[in-house]
Design brief:
Blueprint: E1 5-9, H1 14-25, E2 29-36, H2 57-71, E3 75-79, H3 81-97, H4 104-123, E4 130-132, E5 137-142, E6 145-150, E7 173-174, H5 182-191, H6 216-219, E8 222-226, E9 231-235, E10 258-263, E11 268-272, E12 278-289, E13 298-303, E14 311-317, E15 322-332, E16 339-344, E17 347-359
């Protein structure tokens, strides 16, 4: 009887490596897939911190290959440098140019990892039945359909970053770590004697200094003003600011000030006191629903950033592909460009891109 062949998305990190080891140990025919995304012509990106996009990719690929050698499984690299530059990096830049805060991990998962990587691997003749990753999330088959759920380990849950992927892929996706805790993963890495067992986790996307990805358009100095239009200081480029930011403003005031708005058109940062940054809800667009039909209006939980706790909310799913959310209690720093992700308890319903907050007054 033929064994199912499972391709594992390998990053060189502990989570994806243990995923491959577990599947191999359970008798599956496993192969490793890694996507090459870093374009060396961009130079040294970031401040030296380890990130998933940067010059450390070479060592990450080498580690992924070593893990596959240790597990005695084939290893393949998929070159996505062109696609990553055209889709993820261009999106990253354009969002900042528009005064919004991008979330490249969501775009990368949707377009690259669960998109072009699988398509290119298949087109090149790499054969597999399922695709597994080291994400902390769960997919369950119930009532004749597949649904995505939060991970058992809520502290590590990554479902927020997965809401935009195509639900038609669910029958072929495996998340073996969804029921596990990080301490278990480290123990398993040591048990399997994986060369990455003590390796630190990478940061999201890129380390702190990403200015090199931009030309002078995003780096032009401009004014920092208050809501009355009074100039308080200067900023060094709108790309370095996000809604709710307090540190790094370089202005003194009798009370703490926070970024309330990024006026990209006029190259201005508008600041205010904390109380004016609260919203009673938000508008979102570009939705992706993981349900068969548009969900029913009603009460759900939402996250407006990965590390937020669930916010009980009343939600209207509109036919014009917009979402209107009213929070159960006001929320600080609703940020255009980030995602609102919607849950029914721990089941993922979908989400959309935040367009703007709804002021309390």
């Amino acid at each position: 009887m033929k064994k199912n062949k499972i391709a594992v998305g390998m990053s060189g990190g502990v989570d994806s490596s243990v995923t491959a080891a577990l599947l191999k140990d359970n008798g599956y025919d496993v192969i490793g897939l890694s996507m090459e995304i870093y374009d060396g012509s961009l130079g040294l990106i970031g401040n030296g911190g380890h990130a998933c996009f940067g010059p450390d990719e070479k060592s990450d690929m080498e580690m992924a290959e070593k893990v596959c050698e240790k597990l005695d499984i084939p290893f393949f690299r998929v070159n996505l440098k062109k696609e990553y530059k055209e889709i993820v990096l261009n999106y990253f830049r354009e969002e900042y140019f528009a005064g919004r805060t991008p979330n490249p991990c969501i775009v990368c998962n949707n377009k690259m990892k669960f998109g072009f990587m699988l398509e290119k691997a298949t087109a090149s003749g790499i054969d597999f039945d399922y695709f597994a990753t080291g994400h902390y999330a769960r997919i369950k088959y119930e009532d004749g359909k597949y649904n995505m759920y939060k991970a058992v380990n809520l502290h590590k849950d990554q479902s927020y970053f997965l809401y935009a992927i195509n639900k038609n892929l669910f029958p072929k996706i495996l998340f073996p770590l969804g029921e596990m805790y990080k301490s278990e993963i480290r123990d398993l890495a040591r048990k399997y004697k994986l060369p990455c067992s003590e390796q630190e986790e990478s940061q999201d996307f890129i380390s702190d200094d990403y200015g090199q990805l931009f030309d002078e358009k995003g780096l032009e100095p401009g004014h920092i003003i208050n809501e009355s239009g009074e100039m308080l200081g200067y900023h060094n480029g709108i790309i370095y600011y996000t809604i709710g930011q307090r540190k790094g403003l370089g202005i003194s005031h009798s009370s703490p000030l926070y970024v309330k708005e990024i006026d990209a058109k006029n190259n201005r940062i508008i600041v205010s006191e904390k109380e004016s940054l609260f919203s009673k809800g938000l508008f979102a667009d570009t939705p992706n629903y993981l349900t068969k039909n548009i969900p029913d209006n009603g009460f759900y939980n939402v996250k407006i950033r990965k590390n937020n706790k669930d916010i009980p909310s009343e939600i209207y799913f509109n036919k014009d592909n917009t979402i209107k959310v009213f929070f159960g209690f006001p929320q600080l720093a609703v940020t255009p460009g980030q995602s609102v992700v919607i849950y029914n308890e721990d089941k993922l319903i979908g989400g959309g891109i935040i367009k703007q907050g709804i002021p309390i007054k």
